[in-house]
Amino acid sequence: MYNPNSAIERVKNHLAYKLGQAMIDFTNNGGGYIALFKKLYKIKKQHKKEQKIYQQTIQIFPQLKYPSLETCGDYEQALRYKFHLSYMLGEVLIKADKTWHKGSGFKLKNDIKKANKEFQIFREIFKEFDQINSSILEGLINNKQLFLKEFPRIKNILKIHQDYKAILDNIFHNFNYFIQNFDLIEEWLLSDDFNERYKKGSHPYPSLLDPKKLNDENEKINYKNIPAELAWEMNLPLPDRYEFVIFGSHGVGMKSVLAILKFLGYHNPSYLNHEAEGKFRYYQAYVTFLSKKIFFLDIFDYGFEGCDKYLLMIAKKSKCIYFTRDPICILETYINAKIRNPNFSMKISIDSNLDGKLNLYKYVNSLEAQKNFIFSKNMGLRACYFEYSVVDLLKLKDILYIDMNELQSINIVNTFIKIFNFLNISLNINDQIKNINFGYSWYFNGLEIVSSRFSFFISTHASVLLNDKVWENYSEITDLVSYDYDVLDFKIFVKSDCYALLINDEKELKKMNTFLKKFIQEFQKQVGIERSRKITPSQYLKFLFTEEKKEKTIKLKELFDYELQHIKQHRPDIVAS
């Protein structure tokens, strides 16, 4: 009795393998054809009997059902047994037996010769290429005749690219697709364009399909009929539906830039978080770019899993805008990064005592945590300085550098005019973009102030501009409640169905006026407290380097020297410090 947990033993127990082995024994040992046919008949009869007993057994004892072959530890090795001569001869005999009444016996001799020839072909492939795994073997089994039909051409492709491991890995990793779409892939892999774009420079992630054809919706196979997951596996570059690329690290105003571009009608793929793997960023960008909008691509992280492959999928030669600032200022912004404290209640009474109650800021980068991952991938200082890594990897040439000082409200309109002139895009820049910023006031966006009769809602200029639909059922009353003081960046709303009642309620308006005045005072006081809490770069560096100082200092200098080399060459004024 064979071991049901061994895929090899179970494949060797297949009828095809047993019949073929009997035929090989006959060829080697002789014995006459009548004896051979009797033996084959006996094997077939015994096999049917065993199968019947097995089916009856598992009907009564279902727990005795064998595990699927795929779950066996030797599954991959077992698949190779289906390419043994014994198995392939057995398949010929089974086919002949089923079609004997159609005269298949007359072709049996030729079919056996054919099986021997096919066996030699597969043996040659397995001997020459060590990338053969279970998925490739399954592909060969499912597409055996198609593979054999095109074998001379397939062999030619593999031979031509035998010194380019990256494309061989891609072919074997997607072998099913390779065989089923061989004509198209062959044309691409033999083209001068493939040689120039990928093979000549030993590109680590060569595309299995021609990107030019993929971007043409009139082609039979294009981006729209290839799932994002398969596209990633085949190293297909992202669809070229984006007009330009922007990139910049943490702490250079990227949040405001993204918001302004959205306000101006441009869209970008949205990622789940900064830790998202490269393949998930790719999926999101791939699907996003297939819709009918105006797109740009943004790079604001580096070092995440699959980072290099993701970045190398950005193949379109686009103009780039790089947002940056003095490297020490980047560090200061990063180490003082904050979020809204999730424990802060965004609903308060209009009668509340606000003294010391507006502390809703939570800092995400504690010093102790920073000490542990200062140079970790996509964390610590690595999240702040990666400019040259991106420029070098993508071979970027046409870059416009924007200093964060140019993003100040007083400069922002002219800065975006300069950006779109650089991009050769004609666009009217709305002056309203100077109100899009994410300062201390932003964290109070959506705060609800509850009185006995109404609820008032605090928002900001940026929120209203960027989320106009959110506020379409609300009416602004800022001027009604802040007539005697500066309300800063805040805007006040009530639900539109309450507006008519409120404007005639002087008591409620006066009450809100008093509350808002106190709110502004406490807000400014809290901002002062937060600014005094800021960790300075010198404090940060002193804390980090108290232990192993020399080693970390050298490492930081190496990081700066490497990542800042390009900007030192093109915009030395930004990194003068």
UniProtKB/TrEMBL annotation:
Q: What Pfam families does UniProt report for this protein, alphabetically? A: DUF2972
> Mind telling me what this protein is named?
DUF2972 domain-containing protein
Source taxon at top rank: Bacteria
Which species?
Answer: Campylobacter jejuni
Q: Which InterPro entries match?
A: DUF2972
